[in-house]
Design goal:
Blueprint lengths: L2 H11 L5 H20 L4 E3 L3 E8 L2 E4 L6 E4 L2 E8 L1 H7 L3
Antiparallel strand pairs: 1-2, 2-5, 3-4
Helix pairs in contact: 1-2
């Protein structure tokens, strides 16, 4: 599902709200999560999951085409861990 599909579905479920207001709400939610992660904070949505940032150390990688050693800088990457309720919902039989 894309962001625009999410907005369209929320608009269908909430016909009393303006499309532009739903778009602003969704954008604000994503921006807030991104800002918190950029600050190194953890964002937990109970029952859904938790977003956090993991630190990757600098390392020596390999160019797959040539096999040449390449230095890979240290970096921060986003990480998502599913919540218990979401895992259970995905595995319902």
């Amino acid at each position: 599902m894309t962001k625009s599909e999410l907005i369209a579905r929320l608009a269908e479920q909430n016909p009393h709200l303006y499309h532009r207001d739903i778009e602003r709400i969704v954008s604000t939610l994503f921006d807030t999560i991104a800002d918190a992660l950029a600050d190194g904070k953890r964002v937990e949505l109970r029952g859904f999951g938790a977003f956090s940032v993991k630190e990757r150390e600098a390392r020596v990688g390999r160019n797959p085409r040539t096999g040449e050693a390449v230095a890979v800088d240290a970096k921060r990457v986003p990480f998502f861990k599913t919540g218990k309720q979401l895992r259970e919902r995905l595995n319902e039989i």
